[in-house]
Amino acid sequence: MLCLLMFHLLQIGCLVFIAARASKLVPLGFTSATQLHAQRLEIIQITSESRELEKVLEGGIETGSITEIYGEFRSGKTQLCHTLCVTCQVRGFLCSSYHTFASLLFIRK
């Protein structure tokens, strides 16, 4: 029971970390449609090199967004994060991945 509680606390801590990092990148407050349109034009979609996954993601993983990748044990989550990290670095982006109970990928221009 204690292990399960610790696991849930770790999950909550990770989500709080992601939310804190995202809140620093995304300013809160009023945004006009013109500003929003300009921000959307700067978004780049990173390809996973998989046609089927691109259909599901509607073109790729977007910069400036949080995309959750989950699945069964040994289903390829970590491999996908590593592949995306290399794809980003080849294109000149800063990229790092973190692996705890889930795989996290951060992409910056």
UniProtKB/TrEMBL annotation:
<dbReference type="InterPro" id="IPR020588">
    <property type="entry name" value="RecA_ATP-bd"/>
</dbReference>
<keyword id="KW-0547">Nucleotide-binding</keyword>
<dbReference type="Pfam" id="PF08423">
    <property type="entry name" value="Rad51"/>
</dbReference>
<dbReference type="GO" id="GO:0042148">
    <property type="term" value="P:DNA strand invasion"/>
</dbReference>
<dbReference type="InterPro" id="IPR013632">
    <property type="entry name" value="Rad51_C"/>
</dbReference>
<dbReference type="GO" id="GO:0003697">
    <property type="term" value="F:single-stranded DNA binding"/>
</dbReference>
<dbReference type="GO" id="GO:0006312">
    <property type="term" value="P:mitotic recombination"/>
</dbReference>
<feature type="domain" description="RecA family profile 1">
    <location>
        <begin position="42"/>
        <end position="109"/>
    </location>
</feature>
<dbReference type="GO" id="GO:0140664">
    <property type="term" value="F:ATP-dependent DNA damage sensor activity"/>
</dbReference>
<keyword id="KW-0732">Signal</keyword>
<dbReference type="GO" id="GO:0000730">
    <property type="term" value="P:DNA recombinase assembly"/>
</dbReference>
<dbReference type="GO" id="GO:0007131">
    <property type="term" value="P:reciprocal meiotic recombination"/>
</dbReference>
<keyword id="KW-0067">ATP-binding</keyword>
<dbReference type="GO" id="GO:0000150">
    <property type="term" value="F:DNA strand exchange activity"/>
</dbReference>
<protein>
    <recommendedName>
        <fullName>RecA family profile 1 domain-containing protein</fullName>
    </recommendedName>
</protein>
<dbReference type="InterPro" id="IPR027417">
    <property type="entry name" value="P-loop_NTPase"/>
</dbReference>
<dbReference type="GO" id="GO:0003690">
    <property type="term" value="F:double-stranded DNA binding"/>
</dbReference>
<dbReference type="GO" id="GO:0000794">
    <property type="term" value="C:condensed nuclear chromosome"/>
</dbReference>
<dbReference type="GO" id="GO:0005524">
    <property type="term" value="F:ATP binding"/>
</dbReference>
<feature type="signal peptide">
    <location>
        <begin position="1"/>
        <end position="22"/>
    </location>
</feature>
<dbReference type="GO" id="GO:0070192">
    <property type="term" value="P:chromosome organization involved in meiotic cell cycle"/>
</dbReference>
